[in-house]
Design a protein that fits this description.
121 residues, mainly beta, four-stranded antiparallel beta sheet
Length: 121
């Protein structure tokens, strides 16, 4: 089995910064794409930032220039540095990874449990 555990959420004032972390653990053979999504109340879950299978990065337009996604492959961990936070960034942030478990022969998507980010005005 595989677990993704997020940390680093919290309450911050507008203009502030937070850094989210997501560590994958368990019977992991390989990790491919890994990144961050968010879901605000009453809205659909949306992509925030992610590494693709080719190693490039994709950002939603609303966070470009403010958020940076990075990863530590040795630790199977992905990070999201969030600067200049706005109230509209308030959401539950989820980590998602495309992971192949040992002996499976294929990649499957795994999700973390989510971490709340609240930005006050």
């Amino acid at each position: 089995q595989v677990q993704l555990v997020e940390s680093g959420g919290g309450l911050v004032q507008a203009g502030g910064s937070l850094r989210l972390s997501c560590a994958a653990s368990g019977s992991i053979f390989a990790v491919s794409a890994m990144g961050w999504y968010r879901q605000a109340p009453g809205r659909q879950r949306e992509l925030v930032a992610t590494f693709t299978t080719g190693g490039s990065t994709i950002y939603v337009d609303s966070v470009k220039g403010r958020f940076t996604v990075s990863r530590d492959n040795a630790k199977n961990t992905v990070y999201l540095q969030m600067n200049s936070l706005k109230p509209e960034d308030t959401a539950v942030y989820y980590c998602k990874g495309a992971i192949a478990t040992k002996g499976s022969g294929y990649f499957a998507d795994y999700w973390g449990q989510g971490t709340q980010v609240t930005v006050s005005s």
